[in-house]
Write the structure tokens for this entry.
Amino acid sequence: MNQSAFLIPWFVVVPLAAAFVNSLIGGRIRGLPALLACLTTFSLLGLSLVATQFVRINTTLVYHVGGWKPPIGIAMVLDGFTVFMLVTVNLVAFAIAVYATDYMERYTSKAMFYSLLLLMLSGMNGVIVAGDLFNLFVFLEIAAVASYALVAFGTERHELEAAFKYAVMGTVGSLFILLGIVFLYSVTSTLNMADMSLMLAGQRDHNLILMVSVLFLMGFGLKAALVPFHAWLPDAHPSAPAPISAMLSGVLIKTLGVYALCRIFYNVIGFTPMLSAILMFLGTLSMVVGVLLAMGQRDLKRLLAYSSISQVGYVFLGIGLGTPLGIVGGVFHLFNHSVSKSLLFLNSGAVEYATGTRDLKVLGGLREKMPITGATSFLASMSIAGIPPFGGFWSKLLIIIAAVQAGYLGYALWAVIVSVLTLALFVTVFKDVFLGEPQHVWQGVKEVPGRMQVSMIVLALLSMVSGLLLLPDVKEAFLRPATAIFLEGTHYAQVILGDI
């Protein structure tokens, strides 16, 4: 085992320990919960960036828990896709932790909030580094249960109702995933993903594989809020505090849904033309349905929630194409959407923090009162809409070109149409919230506290410069190793087990 592999378990241990400490003494020392959460997320971001260099040198690292080698023991894996997701998740988590230091002052227990946030982060990191399906499921449930509690954190009637609906739908999705794991275990007698991939390579029961694929598609599709499994998201995301809305739309649905589904279908079961067709169709359907439903909303956070459904559709369309260019576009858009949509939810939280409402019918004229919030919201909106030179433009362009090259002109056309509708949507939202003459009731409104501004500015800058990830040197270090894991397919098994 490579000595660098000892880095891997810290992605789970550090946030889990911080959550435990916060729950014990966080409520007794003022300022400790926020400080501990910021230090924890910052250290995890640093570890993630260090991990990119380790993967660049070693390609794949495997940590054997307790010294027991897989497939008998538990393995934690660090490869290009893992590192890509760790950087994305922990970057957004750090920005949210800083933002929440001021925002959560209006809630009753910051210690409890940060404990749940860190617990959710530990679960997400665990899903990303897990090398076997059992632990992937365990960490998925840790993150999901923490998110249920965070959606209900305000304890108002609509928040509790949304959390209950989210918990019920999430449990159904988890049941589908668990059943899929049980059926796979019944025919392979292993839970290690690499070993399972080798066992399935000689499996002739195509009906079983088909049934398991359907179960995983429904389970992880629900976690990713892919249409038609999206019903929980428009209620859960607006009900949660703004930092959690940003976390849910920015990274949770990507980790528990997109990442897990891609890891299993590409590296364990194997990617097939039928699966490609299903993912492209559902991705395009999500794009169209999400943006059309968003256009009818007057609640700012609910509108952003529907927009998330639409943008996740782009990710699935790119990944579903299965071509190198399509995968690069899908993975790149996952990063761009994580940053920009997290920022937009933080912007909505800032507007609600300053005005007490997120109703687009009564807002307006806030640009002069809240210049930082207005400017960062504009930048994030342009990136989501795919306007050059923002990162969202380049990722959407790659997906559209890949669809044209693969001969799917209809899907490419829908991607263009949805991008135009998204631009119209966010131009209208920006006008309704920030332009025009402010109503008399908003004359006393002022910009949000400094730490909230810092988080929004950092994410806005990333939205502007993320296109630089396509530069050759940066792409070789960050994007190409992530997409290479898709292209390896079930050869992932030889890579992992060959490390033993």
Notes: The chain has 20 helices and two strands. The two ends are 7 Å apart (CA to CA). The chain has one domain: 3-497. The longest strand covers residues 61-64.
